[in-house]
Amino acid sequence: MTLVAAAAGSAALLSLAGPAFVRWCARVGELPPRYLLGLWTVALAVWTVSWATLLFSVVAEIMGPGLKGFVTACISLFQAVSNSGAGTVVAVLAPVAALAAGRLCWVLARRYAGSVRWRREHHRELDAGARRRCLGGHDVWLLQARRPDVYCLPGRRSGVVLTQGALDVLSPRELQAVLAHEDAHLRGRHHVLVAASRLLDTAFPGVPLLRAAAAEVPVLVEWAADDRAARTVGHAPLLHAIGAMVAPAEPDTSGRSLAASGACPVERARRLLPGENSGNGRSTPAATALSAAILLAVPPAGVLAATVLTVAGSPPCVCTL
What we know:
Elements: H1 2-29, H2 33-63, H3 70-84, H4 87-129, E1 130-135, E2 138-143, E3 150-153, E4 159-163, H5 164-169, H6 172-187, H7 190-203, H8 208-232, H9 235-245, H10 265-272, H11 285-312
Parallel strand pairs: 2-4
Antiparallel strand pairs: 1-2, 3-4
Helix pairs in contact: 1-2, 1-8, 1-11, 2-8, 2-11, 4-7, 6-8, 6-9, 7-8, 8-9, 9-10
């Protein structure tokens, strides 16, 4: 049961100490948003693999080479539980794993169906009430609304939606900065990262790592898109555009917020000020992020490799009915 204990310890350690480790790496390495966003993505992927490795380790510990063949595996598992004295472990972990997988699939299916339905209905509204325009080299949907608003729609018919109110308050350079920001969201598939973090947090509430990721990933995608837009157009146009967009011309009475911003506009503006995000040059962010990702992945990868080697080196299992 050594491998099972190692897998359980690795998964629990990442669940509890993962947020502190990622934030420590961000602080020590002064990671820019794009690297920190990648590190959170690795942490979520490794967390999922860690718990899957735990389940595989339990099955491998009990069944050994009985993993070969579905029918043989079922018979081997039944016999192993009856004869090895590990029935309590399986009796607890098997239903827990089944419930966890079922809940994840249910939440995923429900959120996916809701997202597809919302995008379909919103595209129908855009086709009926918006005009297609080419602004600054970007094809956008232009809505006749006084409230300044700009947001992107992911999916098969991805694009940027812009209101007339935004067009009225933004200068040409500011409009270029805003469109570059939304284009960065679409190119980086930021909606997938945000949806994945919120999906895991909804499916498995109370896990510190998932709760922290669901709170920080939406902020980081905004910062990463800001950095991309600032490199393309400049800091000043984007800074002025943020100021223009946070003061709506009239209250939003539609009952929905179509923009997916997860970051405070004041904090976004502060990051764009000169000297606020320059770093000290004493560390290499890419090397720090890569090292942190490796440290996150090593424990579950080691347990998984040891489990596979154990199963491969086990003697053949003879199953009798």
